[in-house]
Fold:
Amino acid sequence: MTHVLLVGAGNMGFAMLRSWVTLGNHRFTVVESNEALRKRAEELGVVACSPTDDLPADKEIDILVIATKPQIVGEAVARYLPKLAANGLIISVAAGVNIKAIMSRGEKPVAVIRSMPNTPAAIGEGMIVCCPSPEADIPMHRQTAEQLLSAVGRVAFVHDEALMDAVTAVSGSGPAYVFHFIEALSAAGVEAGLDESLALLLAQQTVFGAAKLALEANETPSILREQVTSPNGTTAAALEILMDRDMGLRPLLGKAVHEAKERSIELGHASANG
Structure:
């Protein structure tokens, strides 16, 4: 029986826990400072305790999952690392905390997988990107991380931690870009004469359906776009604006992702120096 200790049962931690309790051959303990969040976790049938409580002496940890705010990751790792099994694994979903910062809280190297989920994980449709430390880059650790994290979405791995800033800029911040696109498309519908509720429904379902089709179709997004676009038709007229080389969606998103990546780098440096 694998013992998983989850530190932090906020939105992301609870979303993961809610899926994990359906897994076999696992037992879970939650550490959470907020009493209401502890009670919510207990309602799933797991043991939940405060950070000031001592874990039972027999509860050696096989997997330590850190889902706290970035500023208390170091404290959590230092507190529970001594109870981690010899071949144990740390999985961090804390934003902006690099592997070196996590490893620095222990006296010896430990297997760490840094993960970047996004908010759709709350409904099981997240995108989670993982970067393993050299100690964690073995099949057993990768399989463990995939099993747990795939419960809340799709999982991908990168092996260059520097790429996590680009991951943050694309999938971490990406839901906000999509939400704003829905806002903008809905507002354009209202300007075209639709009432607000209908315009919003059209925008929401269109984005959802197109994204699902893009995931499930064998064709690339470019081919799917071409299939929808009749020569000199309505879609072609709209795409002439959206695909403008200088002012269109691609250069605009390129600038947006660049700024998000640069800010991620800045925040990472600030966290490391703080």
